[in-house]
Structures are given as C-alpha cells and as structure tokens.
Specification:
Largest sheet: 5 strands, parallel
Structural class: alpha/beta
Strand order of the largest sheet: 3-2-1-4-14
Helix content: 25-40%
Oligomer: single chain
Number of strands: 14
Strand content: 15-25%
Length: about 450
C-alpha cells in the first residue's frame, strides 16, 4: 500500500446541523475501525517527526499510528499512554498542533488524523479492558494538589504512580476545572471525565470537593509538597458604560451554568442565563466565544453575532507570518460557527445600551489598526460612524488575566494556567506532568 499517495485524509465529521442543535450530545462522529486503521496508515514515519516537536506532550504519533495501522490497538494504547495521560480529553478538544506540523500538511494540506486517531485508540482501550487500575507501592510522602483542572489531574496522576499519596482539593462540587465547567457537553461529554476520575480514585487518589484552600504556610507545612493548579479564574472585563445592565455576562457564567443544569442542578428563573428567543452578541473571537455560539443555538436564540476587535485572520491553509511547521494563525470555522453566526472583525465596543435596567443593544464602531511610529503594538483608529447592534444578551469572551502569586514556601509548586496564563488543555497537561517531575526531584533530594 502506498498509504498517503493513495489514501486521502478522511475526517469523521459532525452530526447534521438540523439534528445536533437540538441537544447537547457530542457533535463529532467516528469512523469505522477499518477506516481508522487506513487513516493511521497514512503516517509517513518521518525521519524528523515534526508532529512530535509540535506537541507539548511530545506524543510519538508515528509510533502509535504504525501500531494502529497494523491493527494492534493495545500496543497503540501502550505507546500513546507513555506521553499522554488523558487522550480521551485531547482526542476531543485539542486543536492538534501536531497535525499542522505534519509533513503531509506541508506536502498537500492533508495531515494525518492524529487527534481522531488518539481518541479512537483510548476509547478502544477502555472498551477492551486494556486500562486497569494500577496500585503503586507507596513511598510514605504526601502531596496536595489544589485545583482539579487538566494540569492538576495530570500532576496528580503522575505523582500517584510514582508512589506519593495524593489528595486533590477542589472548591467546586465536581472535578475537571474548565473541562467540566467551561467546555460544552457537545464537545466533551462529562461522563468521559467521570470515567477517568473513577479510575484515579481506584488507584488511590483522594478527591475532596467543596474545599477552597488558602495555600499559606500553615497548609503547605501539612504536606511534603503542594501543587497549585487553580487555573485562570479572572476573566478580562469590558468596563464601559452600561456594564451593569441585566443581560451582560461573562462567557463562563453562561457556559458553566449550562453544564451544571445538564448535570441536574436547578436554577430559579432569575438566576438562569438563557439565550432563548434573544438576539445574542458574543464579544471575543476565540474558542470560548465559539462555545457561547453553540450554546446559544441549543438554548433557542433568535440569532448570534460575534465581534472581534482584532483584524480578520488570513484565509488558510497557509499563514505567511507563521510558515510550516509553526501553527498557522488562519481563519478558524468551528462546528458552532457552521450552525449560524454573523462574524465581524475590527469592531470596537463603545457602550451597552438598555431600558429599565435591561440590555437592548450595544453601540460599536468599526476601527483600523495602523503601524505605531514608535514601534510596539499597532495603534487603533476610528473608521466610519458608530452603529448599534441589537442584543438582549451579551457574552464577554475576551480571555483571562494571568494570575499573580505571592511568595510560597519551597515545597509549593505552581503549574498549568495558574503559572502560565490561559492556554490549551494539552499545554496544561504537559505543565502538570513537568511539575510532577519537579516535585519528585525536590522530594528525592
């Protein structure tokens, strides 16, 4: 078989729009076992695997794709799990940096389907029982993990298997961080998180919920080491006139409440944030904004507009500013965008408008960016006249502020978004694993 010369890239694709917008089930479909193995066979096993270079976890895609292509699913799982602790998460929500760095992406823009392959591998591993609880020999030392997002879970998983007695403290009612409270169920079914948590508890990790920990000296001295993995909790705000109007919310207020409602939590009519029957405006052009669009559709919105203050990205697949194998900053159209959305760029938000305390619209203005004569960030200049976008619900999805930390004791380590600011789940996993190694080195001295 001549693999990539004869077999084209085939993605599983999404459920039909008219079907998926009526529920919160995962939108992505799956290929058959035979089709998945054929896709894995397209991997070239490059002499210099740029996929490995691009992946923050250092996933060895050529190795497990080779095993998968030969039908050895168990070996593929063993190889994948050496670098990736939770392929069931990245296999669903990772933007797949490895695929953009794939040599086939350079060759014909048909990279190997690494993300879908790894999701298929881990699901087969759970189905076939390749994954069984491990019972590591304990070394007598105790580690506390504060925060249960991807970084905290990755650090806990590795430290537990090294023999440390690990306790995870989570201030919310369930573990997962943004995996549970930020990412919609139509991208990541929460049963996937629960399945992994059950395995981690079977392996001896203790999970304590509803406990907000102050990582002061008194707490740190109770453990041999403490890992802070509390993420980025402060969303970037838009402090303009009318911000207090009812109907203006942070994106995570909507997303986390919707996920909680699907989990069975009840809210009063006044508490409930809903897009039902409303004109919705999403401010911010990233993935969080996209998640708001998909959620608004499923709640029954009238329409959705998404605005972004930065210029429209270049049309792909290549980005002259970031040539292969770097990540191309090209226009991204998500499954949520496909469901219906007016998208606009170079739009500055001036004022929230309302009547009787309720939001009715947003005054915006088109702008341009010009080079700064002094260098540095370009300058924003007005273009045209202000206009009003009708909206009864505004969702602020403009990113998060990097957390600031006090000086901690030597046995306290910070990882993930708490250390580096908001980023990708795969980078949080990598940071958690790297921090586990640092903790082990510190406690082994």
């Amino acid at each position: 078989m001549n693999a990539f010369l004869e077999i084209h890239r085939q993605e599983a694709g999404y459920r039909p729009i008219h079907d998926r917008i009526h529920d919160f089930g995962e939108v992505e479909q799956t290929l058959s076992t035979r089709e998945r193995q054929a896709q894995a066979s397209r991997c070239m096993d490059c002499g210099v695997p740029f996929c490995h270079w691009a992946c923050p976890l250092g996933n060895k895609a050529p190795e497990w794709n080779d095993a998968l292509s030969k039908g050895d699913w168990e070996l593929a799982y063993r190889l994948l799990s050496t670098t990736n602790p939770f392929p069931e998460f990245t296999g669903r929500i990772c933007p797949a940096l490895c695929e953009k760095a794939c040599v086939l992406n350079r060759y014909n823009h048909e990279p190997t389907t690494n993300r879908e392959d790894e999701c298929a591998i881990i699901e087969m591993a759970f189905r076939e029982g390749y994954i069984q609880p491990q019972t590591p020999k304990r070394n007598g030392k105790r580690v506390a993990i504060v925060g249960s997002g991807p970084a905290g879970l990755a650090a806990a998983n590795d430290l537990n298997r090294m023999g440390y007695t690990v306790t995870i403290f989570e201030k919310k009612e369930s573990a997962g961080g943004l995996l549970r409270y930020g990412i919609p169920n139509f991208k990541l079914n929460k049963a996937i998180i629960d399945r992994r948590l059950q395995l981690m508890e079977q392996e001896g990790i203790q999970l304590r919920y509803g406990e907000e920990i102050n990582c002061d000296e008194n707490f740190a001295k109770q453990y041999d080491a403490v890992v802070i993995a509390t993420g980025t909790s402060t969303a970037r705000d838009l402090k303009i006139a009318g911000r207090e109007l009812k109907g203006v919310h942070f994106a995570l207020e909507l997303l986390s409440q919707q996920n909680r409602a699907l989990a069975g939590m009840e809210f009063t009519k006044d508490q409930r944030i809903t897009a039902k029957g409303k004109d919705v405006l999403v401010i911010g052009g990233g993935d969080t904004g996209s998640d708001c669009i998909g959620t608004a559709h499923r709640q029954g919105c009238k329409n959705v507009t998404q605005i972004e203050i930065m210029p429209r990205p270049v049309e792909g697949p290549d980005d002259p500013q970031n040539p292969w194998p770097n990540w191309p900053r090209t226009l991204k159209t998500t499954s949520s965008h496909e469901e219906g959305c007016t998208r606009r760029w170079n739009i500055n938000t001036l004022e929230f408008l309302g009547k009787d305390g309720r939001l009715t619209g947003v005054r915006v203005q088109e702008i341009d960016w010009i080079p700064n004569p002094d260098g540095g960030r370009p300058l924003m200049v007005e273009k045209g006249e202000p206009e009003i976008i009708k909206a009864e619900l505004v969702l602020l999805a403009m990113g998060f502020l990097k957390p600031q930390h006090p000086q901690y004791l030597d046995n306290v380590f910070v990882c993930g978004d708490a250390a580096n600011g908001a980023s990708l789940v795969v980078r949080a996993l990598a940071s958690g694993r790297q921090t586990a190694v640092k903790v082990d080195q510190y406690l082994s001295k």
